[in-house]
Amino acid sequence: MKKPSASVDEHLAHNQDFVRLIQVAREDPAIRRQLISFLTLDDFNRQSALNTWLHQLRLNGAPLKFTRAIACLTDPVIAHKALGLIQGHHASLTK
Asked: How many folded domains does the chain comprise?
């Protein structure tokens, strides 16, 4: 998989919903496990599983900020970056 570009890193660093999602995943083992289970899937299955989860979240009235952050993870480059951040392979959103 290709390495995230600086512009993706910059975009994510300014996306407070995404930043908060990563922080929560680092702090909460249950959230971390759930996200890792999605992020380790191949692109097609990750997108399918996340879209199903997003649909359920919206039906259940989940906060818009949370659903927007989860929706970012359907992008393969962002998903790769998020997995690295959650697992501690990347120290931060910027180099």
From this structure: 1
Q: What percent of the chain has pLDDT over 90?
A: 68
Tens-place pLDDT, residues 38-72: 999 999 999 999 999 999 999 999 999 999 999 99
Q: Which residues span the domain enclosing 18?
A: 6-87
What is Dmax (Cα atoms) for the chain?
37
Structure tokens at 92: 């931060």
For residues 73 and 46, the answer to whether their CB atoms sit within 8 Å is yes
Mean per-residue pLDDT, 59-88: 93
Q: pTM of the predicted model, to two decimals?
A: 0.78
42-47: long-range pairs with CB below 8 Å, 24+: 43/76, 43/79, 46/73, 46/74, 46/76, 46/79, 47/74
- Alpha-carbon distances, residue 38 vs 5, 67, 88 (angstroms): 22, 15, 17
